[in-house]
Amino acid sequence: MNYKVFISFVLAALMLCSCKNSKPEAAQNADAQSEVTGSADSPETKITAEMAFEGVNNYCHEKFDWTITEENPDIMYVTMGEETDSAYQVVFRSYTGSLTHFYVDKLTGKTRMVTKVPNLGVEEADGTIDLHDYLGKVSSSDKEASTTNESLTGHFVSDDDGSSLTISAREDGRYSIVISLFRLTHLDDGVGGDAEGGIDFTATDANGEPIGGRITFADDTATLTFIHSSWSLIEEGAKWEFKRK
Description:
single chain, alpha+beta, eight-stranded antiparallel beta barrel, 13 strands, globular
């Protein structure tokens, strides 16, 4: 091979490689950063337990008829279930006795629904929803309740043993619930939302497990009913009455 031809061939090859690698350094750095942190369009994860409850509660009040709870508030409710590393569980009880378990993915908000009928041993998948579609929504019943939020807040005390219930409004339109039951327990992390006839709430019991129920109101009396409890000292259906102070 002619020496000059060989040199020309080598120079052409070098120029071709140089063109392929001519991407600006800033662009290369940006690509590297993207590989580490992910796309700028990737959603940020920040689904909290409160958001999970709010979204499912809004969904259930939008999709189901709650009229029956005007006569029997305990027959339908939404409460927090068990939590795993990847998902929150929220449970809806229908007046028929069926239970719909909502498994809310902590990263995406994608929520899988499974309906169970314990008495019949039935369990079936019931589709999925995007939790974000039901956050910040206000149903017609919530709009009516929002005008009376002030009447649901306050400090209530039991005439029997001095147990107390304190309900205060939060900036997000929900309620902070603090419950002190004489010689039994103190729950200070309760969060509640408007429900037909009162407030549905969830908190954490002395064993670190979710506990929840409903608070209903009649004049200056607040009745607390525990609907979901795995703690042996508070049975499901246990009630306390408090008077506004």
